[in-house]
Queue: 2 jobs
Job 1
Amino acid sequence: MKAQEILNGMTLDEKIYHLVQMTTMTYLKTDGTNIVTGPNSRMQLDKEYIYEVGTLLNLVGAQTMIDALTNFLNGSKKKVTPVFMQDVIHGHRTLYPINLGVAASFNRELAHDLAAMAAKEASLDGVSVAFAPMVDLVRDPRWGRVMESSGEDPYLNGEMAAATVKGFQGDMGKYNIAACVKHYAAYGGAEAGRDYNTVDMSERTLRQYYLPPYKAAVDAGVKMVMTAFNIVDGVPCSGNKWLVKDILRDEWGFDGVVISDYSAFEEMIDHGNCQDRKECAYLAMEATEDIEMMSPCYALYLKELINEGKITIKQVDDAVLRILKLKEELGVFENPYRSVNVEEAARVQVGPEHRALARCGAEESAVLLKNNGILPLSKDVKSVALIGPNANTGEIHGSWHCGGKIDETITVLEGFKNIIGDRVKYAKGCDILYNSTDESMIDEAVKLASECEVCVLCLGEHQEYSGEGNCRANIELPEVQYKLLEKVLEVNKNVVVALFAGRPLAISKLDELAPAILDMWMPGTEAGNACANLIFANAIPSGKITMTFPRELGQVPIYYNAYRTGRPKLEEDDFNRVRFTSSYLDMPNSPLYPFGYGLSYTDFEYSDFKLSASKMKRDETLVASVKVKNVGKYKAKEAVQFYIRDVVGSVVRPMKELKGFEKIELDIGEEKTVEFTITEDMLKFWNKDMDFVAENGKFEVFIGKDSRCKPYASFELV
Ligand code: NOJ
């Protein structure tokens, strides 16, 4: 085997440097000056071995890859091809919607196809590994990185994770790249929604809610895992042997490559868990971390640790071999340049085919949150006043835009022009800043609104108000946007709001004021076309939110699959004060929009709910089914959702849990039967003794349009 052969020929220093990950930039100059100066000087790496590192990160551009790799191989003695890794989060050059949007599609095939498209574009630029999917379960919309996640449900996140992994990796052919699931583990549990903050939860909660999506990615064959910045049970993930060695490798059987997050080894010192870089290296190696991203603990101290007998050469060999095996699978030993191709990249990236798929993605991700009947607009509309800070900008394709370009992104104004030509008129109305107080543009917009038949207001956030390091303590719309909306409503009641945001916002007031709200998330390169298509019914909204929208930030964390309490407040009392129940004095318990919620332009009727039996033995399965009929005026898609509640457990069980979903398409008047098979595995949980089992007893079954659906049947596991 090639990998083993290469390992056998490496010196200890070469092996150790193979575990280091540097930025591609380091190798773009040939005189060597860049290596020891600038941001990399803090690494204090040995110049002799800088061309022996195993992997590189941050790369966009086929020619850049070719230059960097050529320089690298010229400088390297051993010439073991490095592989290039990149954050391919929601597209590479063609951007599709942020992942919270893709999840809202409830469409596994779509998630798969979008990832496959990104893989093709990235592979043509010489990228071999995507630092994706990010599958951190999230409950706090203040956290900027909710945009990268699939939301608050372990099952749905796992399904999206598996689909994305398969989309990236395919059969590991020319246009495929390896996936790297992240951030293991529970990064999404950051306290107070503040990035990089403490994560603290019981093992039960960790296993019940937070770990399943990573496991789903592992089961789908993901090649790499990235550990998270945060602590879990007091120990930073990079040095957390229990998480990485015991659970990920031994319990789940993962034998691929584990990489740290950016400089996270060294940050164990800042966490106060390690004295120095040497201790970081020791703990990380004990945890079986393979690649150290952008900090030098391994490079500077592994040899010393081996000499002192604290770690063994075998541990280092195992780590290097895992990396070499991945490289062998990628085929870079036969062809170091792999799939990079300047001409093909230029032809394929952001080409018509990819734009079309990204547009479908954006259309299917959008969620119609409210509609009093004004939507869809007729294409014969006389005039539309398109107003708002997000109406005429490409800065709505989303944070983590990788190689996506603002000037390639279709603005909403362009999208409208593509459908109704010059019957759309534009006024900005206000700027996008979260703390803006500038009202000087409102009058012009109101004048335009008074002159047009309909107004479409593009409100929300700037794309860089979400993403890494972009957290918000206030998730409402800025006052100036409300002022604009209110003034417009004074002169024209025909108002539609297209919302652009990287997170659920607290928009109770918007829900009161606006006749219709279409949440576009951050829709990617084809943003404007998708938005216009939805508004004029060239596409029918079918997205459903996968992260609860609170009425107010004070309700956070708020999620549908919460545990029950000993003093529940009855649903019918939601808006009443009932003291000594689990409730607020000044706020209902219910959210503004629940998990799974989203409207359509058509109506779907659910009938004939069935459950195949009322008892289930452990080796048996049951079938739950429903008929869904399109009784409205448009051919459209519907995400049919299936939930189960375990009524009594040796430890408390969630109010309900999503256990299945199907996205179906129905013509006008068409009816389909949708079935869900119930298995014993579906009923398992971490019981009182921390065994993963299904307990005998009663289970309630729900099928519906969103997480508010009621149980229609029950069965007993015997
Ligand atoms: C830090 C981020 O947390 C991670 O998601 C990303 O993959 C790395 N930086 C590399 O850019």
Note: The chain has a mean pLDDT of 97.
Job 2
Amino acid sequence: MSDLLTVRNLVKEFPLGKGFWGRQKSVVHAVDDVSFSIGENETLGLVGESGCGKSTTGFSILRLIEPTSGEVWFQNENLLALDPNQLRQRRRHMQIVFQDPFGALNPRQTVERIIEEPILNYENISAAERLDRVADALETVGLSPEHMTRFPHEFSGGQRQRVCVARALVLRPKLIIGDEPVSALDVSVRAQVLNLMVRLQRKLNLSYLFISHDLAVIRYVSHRVGVMYLGQIVEMADVKTLYGNPLHPYTWALLSAVPVPDPRRSRKRIILAGDVPSPVNPPSGCRFHPRCTEVMPVCREEMPQMRQMNGGHQVRCHLYSSL
Ligand code: SF4
């Protein structure tokens, strides 16, 4: 599987304004040294508690917010080195589906207008061709061309998210970033939208960066999974390995909270102490150490580096430093 997207040492810091003497007060370390790649037709799931930097990572890749440093290679081109015009051209190959289908659609525009907007921005084709493309996109997501004349409020939440997916697909992108794309939907329609996205991946050769706090959702859609904590990826592995043999204490805690469907099996719940620390002033050493059940003296002093284990499994934890 060749890589479509490679992210190297991505950093995003948000300055918090100046102090009284004009000195920089402090910064929010939202994304800190994040690296991963996504192959063609592959889904990488990014999972972690809210505020861990998952969405900021997604937005930084698209340069919807400007990263502080790092590299983002898409089809062998570093997106961070492109000028605005070049970036605009490349963006047509990378689309995003947001969490909230209610807020993502202009309530005053018809579905036809909403879906044709990206075409108007990027392609010079006739009105009839545009109409065909919009109808095509609607059919691809399981809606009908008759829906074109309707407004967003006339749809259910699941249908609105289908409209958002149709808008993302109409330019035939290579990569879609899903930022919690099903978490605002009723449980009953979540599965429909997830199944749709999985089907579309096979049909259209798409790659996904799928961002969610929901481990069950991530397991269902992903080939590989990265676990994020306080701006860093702390573990990454293929989905079977990560859910079957997690190595990082934070992943243990996350997985221990997922209900087991078999009543004869039980899993000991690991309750994490305290809240996620502030990204303005992250803990020294390992960022997880104040909440870790396995904490050692070295964890308070030294930040663990990402370590390669067997079969592409990576973990950032001192428990494995001497292996
Ligand atoms: Fe826990 Fe130490 Fe590993 Fe951090 S490095 S996860 S504190 S054992």
Note: The two ends are 29 Å apart (CA to CA).
